[in-house]
Amino acid sequence: MDIKVFFSSNAVSPRMVEKRGVLVIDVLRATTTLTTALANGAERILPVQSVAQARMEINRYPKGRSLLCGERGFEKLDGFDLGNSPDEYCRETVSGKYLIYTSTNGTKGMAAGSAGQTMILGAFINFPRPADYLYDLACDITIICCGTADAFSLEDAICGGMYVHYLSKNISSITTNDAAEAALALFRRYRESIPQMLEMCENGRQLASLGFRHDVAYSSVVGATGVVPILREKELIRLE
Q1: Are the CB atoms for 46 and 57 separated by under 8 Å?
Q2: What is the count of structural domains for the chain?
Q3: Residue 49 burial by CB count (10 A; 0-12/13-18/19+): exposed, middle or buried?
Q4: Which domain holds residue 120?
Q5: Is 26 a domain residue?
Q6: Are 110 and 102 in contact (CB under 8 A)?
Q7: Claim: this prediction has a pTM higher than 0.70
Q8: What angle do CA 118, 11, 6 make, to 5 degrees?
Q9: What is the pLDDT of residues 140-160, one digit of tens each?
């Protein structure tokens, strides 16, 4: 099995993920938030890259059962029902609803990974089930660490390294690229201090300064849920 990690979605082309299982990671906060939404009963999630597309797509969904969701620069968009805090996606709000969602970094990574054989979302909170699913597929794997503004993010790289570490323990023959080895080394460095790492990383500090300290703490809880979002016909649903 071959595992490749990329530290920005801009580094990934459709050709590079063909016939591969793709894991998209945006710890703070897209993949954490969307995993939470499906765990709390959201029906389906349509990830889109632009605000304009989100506003257009919601018209295709049932009125009263759909929510316009997302952020730019960590903040909820004007006129949107929900932002990007996992706290907003409680069962009372999202159960049975269709979500149209856009974010600064996460939905770019999802678009980059959508050409893969299969695409799922991973975070600390749903580890290790995404890795188990990819292992069972027995295909080569691409891990897209979405980063921030097309640049490296520590928390995404460490989360990616956690998945590389887990998979490499269970696979006898494995090849990796340099980014996968770097992610693995970072995970080994921070594996005993993930909550503290999220607090000190650039995005964690920025979110705390904006009043989202609880989001940072929640995002650090490894294995909080077994829910895995998987892309089916352009929408994210819960892997059963």
Answers
A1: yes
A2: 1
A3: middle
A4: 2-229
A5: yes
A6: no
A7: yes
A8: 65
A9: 999 999 999 999 999 999 999
